[in-house]
From TrEMBL:
<keyword id="KW-0812">Transmembrane</keyword>
<feature type="transmembrane region" description="Helical">
    <location>
        <begin position="140"/>
        <end position="160"/>
    </location>
</feature>
<dbReference type="GO" id="GO:0016020">
    <property type="term" value="C:membrane"/>
</dbReference>
<feature type="transmembrane region" description="Helical">
    <location>
        <begin position="20"/>
        <end position="45"/>
    </location>
</feature>
<keyword id="KW-1133">Transmembrane helix</keyword>
<feature type="transmembrane region" description="Helical">
    <location>
        <begin position="264"/>
        <end position="283"/>
    </location>
</feature>
<feature type="transmembrane region" description="Helical">
    <location>
        <begin position="204"/>
        <end position="227"/>
    </location>
</feature>
<feature type="transmembrane region" description="Helical">
    <location>
        <begin position="239"/>
        <end position="257"/>
    </location>
</feature>
<dbReference type="InterPro" id="IPR009447">
    <property type="entry name" value="PIGW/GWT1"/>
</dbReference>
<dbReference type="GO" id="GO:0006506">
    <property type="term" value="P:GPI anchor biosynthetic process"/>
</dbReference>
<feature type="transmembrane region" description="Helical">
    <location>
        <begin position="303"/>
        <end position="326"/>
    </location>
</feature>
<feature type="transmembrane region" description="Helical">
    <location>
        <begin position="76"/>
        <end position="95"/>
    </location>
</feature>
<keyword id="KW-0472">Membrane</keyword>
<dbReference type="GO" id="GO:0008374">
    <property type="term" value="F:O-acyltransferase activity"/>
</dbReference>
<feature type="transmembrane region" description="Helical">
    <location>
        <begin position="101"/>
        <end position="119"/>
    </location>
</feature>
<dbReference type="Pfam" id="PF06423">
    <property type="entry name" value="GWT1"/>
</dbReference>
<feature type="transmembrane region" description="Helical">
    <location>
        <begin position="338"/>
        <end position="360"/>
    </location>
</feature>
Amino acid sequence: MEDRLFDKSLNPNKLLKEQFVSNLTGSSLLEIAALSTVVPALVVLRKWSSRDNSRKDSAKKNDDQVHPVGKDWMQYFSTLAVDYLTVVLPIIVVFTVLSEWAFGCAISLAILIYIYVMFKRPQLYLKDGFSQLPSMRADISSYRVSVVLVTCLCILAVDFKIFPRRYAKAETYGSGIMDLGVGSFVVANALVSRQARNIASMSFKAALSSISPLVFLGFARIISTWGVDYQVHVGEYGVHWNFFFTLAAVSILTSIVRIHPKHCGLVGLLILAGYQIWLSSGLNEYLISDKRSADIISQNKEGIYSILGYWGMFLIGVSLGFYLFFDTSSKGKNRNTQVMKIWVLAALFWILAIIFDSYIERVSRRMEVT
């Protein structure tokens, strides 16, 4: 009783904050698709406009070979300010005050991209050829930056009322935009991993060394949240588990079980299928239940069992990264063909997500099933 009184006096709003992010049901897959369209659309428009400006600047620089350092710094900060105004700020606005118009924003940005493609891109193709187009690896970098940006925004905004509750993490079944966080990081890491690049696998000792920063961050998060008495929703990963431990576990599993990138996709699908069968056989009821025993696995059942889902997703990401970006067996890959493949795969994955959500089992970040 004394511990409860002490806990309440230390942070009287802790329970209210936990309730604020608990028992949520998420949003619709269609709205998540719209929000997932807004972010890359803004990035694409910004990149295209910056390339147009860079070509104009390069033409002007031919007349002046001296570039003062102060001018470079000014250009850097001005570029940073434009990036914020054209990418970061619109994302903040769409995810908060314009959340009810997410579909309209996504459609408007798609129309802008279509107009740009129709009137600007043909000139680039004819004038400079395909060599001037950005590489697919640059697009991966943009994707990874976008994932970090949206993750930071949502983590900071979720504690405020201006951030719609349906965008926060769902309690059991359902999905909000925040439920895409860990999965997006796993896929982003997989696309550029050593396995996707078909680089010789590290030894077990080297693999442990490589994940040490993640393990350190995982324990640092436990200590820091405990130290400041910050609210922790145990239904998310468990009592002690967190996001960093999941990434570390996936990394070490991939290092221990060495699979050629050509076979990673099939193995990943088999892992996901087997995990789903296990869930449908009764594991899902155990994971959703609030009952926990004293052992470490039961205390962190959501985080530990979801590793299988994230690992399968990682292996599929490795396969995609290898075939789309790093496979050197076909040197003359056409960028347009690669882009078309990505569009087809994106549409296919969305269709499969809708089918599985409707007829097999609802989407659940808590067990990592789709």
